[in-house]
C-alpha cells in the first residue's frame, strides 16, 4: 500500500476488518499513511480463510489499496518424463524403406528426461477436524558419480480448509535427522522442508498432521513438489487427494 499526492498533505488512517465466510473477524488492523511514509509500501498477510474485507478511510490525501491472492490449477499429467520426436523429412529417393526387426526406439528419435526424484503421498482424514499426510521420497541419480544430491526442498501444499499443526510439524526437525530447516508459509497452508543432501536410492518418509480451519466442499487434488535447490530442472511433482 502506498500513496502519492501533488499538493495535499497526506494524513490518512485506513482501518480494515477481514472476515470469514461466516462473518467472524479473522484479522483487523490500521495502516497509517502520512507525508513521511507515503511512498513506502505497507502490507499485511491475511489468513487463508478470509472471504471479505471491510475498509474505512479517515483523514485527507490519496492512497492506493491493492489485494493480491494466488491459487493453482491441477494438472494431473506429470511433466517429469518427456519423449521428444523430431520432425520427419521426406526422403529424396523413391526406394521403399524396409522396417528393421527391433523393438528399441532409435536414439535419434527419442530422448527421455531423467527423473531425479521419486515421491509418493497418501492423505487421510483422521477425524472431523484433523488429517494426516504420509510422504515418501528418494533420490535417483543418473550416474554413479552423483551419489549425493545437492540441497533439496520438499514443498507440500495442504488441501483447502486445512492448516499445518505447527507444534507437531516443527518437531519433525528433531525426529528426522536429515531435515535442516522447516518453513511454514501462507498462513499454514504451505510447508517447505529443506534437506542438505539426500543419499542415492535411500527412501525417506515423513508423517505430517494438519487441522481443519473451515469446511470446504469438493476438494481438488493438492500439489507436492521436490526439487534440487541449485538445479531447478531436477524437479518432480505429484498431486494427492484426501481419503476417509
Automatic annotation (TrEMBL):
Keywords: Signal, Thioester bond. Residues 149-240 form the Alpha-macroglobulin receptor-binding domain. GO terms for cellular component: extracellular region. SUPFAM superfamilies: Alpha-macroglobulin receptor domain (SSF49410). It holds the Pfam family A2M_recep. Signal peptide: none annotated. This is Alpha-macroglobulin receptor-binding domain-containing protein.
Amino acid at each position: 500500500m502506498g500513496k502519492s499526492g501533488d499538493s495535499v498533505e497526506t494524513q490518512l488512517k485506513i482501518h480494515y476488518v477481514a472476515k470469514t465466510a461466516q462473518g467472524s473477524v479473522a484479522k483487523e488492523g490500521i495502516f497509517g499513511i502520512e507525508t513521511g511514509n507515503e511512498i513506502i509500501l505497507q502490507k499485511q498477510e491475511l489468513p487463508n480463510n478470509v472471504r471479505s474485507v471491510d475498509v474505512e478511510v479517515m483523514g485527507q490525501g490519496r492512497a492506493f489499496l491493492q489485494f493480491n491472492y494466488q491459487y493453482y490449477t491441477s494438472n494431473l499429467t506429470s511433466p517429469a518424463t518427456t519423449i521428444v520426436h523430431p520432425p520427419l523429412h521426406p526422403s529424396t529417393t523413391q526406394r521403399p524403406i524396409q522396417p528393421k526387426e527391433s523393438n528399441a526406439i532409435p536414439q535419434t528419435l527419442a530422448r527421455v528426461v531423467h527423473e531425479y526424484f521419486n515421491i509418493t503421498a497418501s492423505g487421510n482424514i483422521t477425524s472431523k477436524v484433523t488429517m494426516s499426510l504420509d510422504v515418501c521420497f528418494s533420490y535417483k541419480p543418473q550416474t554413479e558419480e552423483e551419489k549425493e544430491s545437492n540441497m533439496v526442498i520438499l514443498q507440500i501444499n495442504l488441501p483447502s480448509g486445512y492448516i499445518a499443526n505447527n507444534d507437531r510439524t516443527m518437531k519433525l526437525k528433531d525426529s528426522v535427522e536429515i531435515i535442516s530447516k522447516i518453513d511454514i508459509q501462507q498462513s499454514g497452508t504451505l510447508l517447505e522442508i529443506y534437506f542438505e543432501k539426500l543419499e542415492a536410492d535411500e527412501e525417506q518418509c515423513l508423517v505430517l498432521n494438519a487441522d481443519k480451519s473451515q469446511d470446504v466442499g469438493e476438494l481438488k487434488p493438492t500439489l507436492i513438489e521436490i526439487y534440487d535447490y541449485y538445479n531447478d530442472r531436477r524437479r518432480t511433482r505429484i498431486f494427492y487427494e484426501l481419503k476417509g
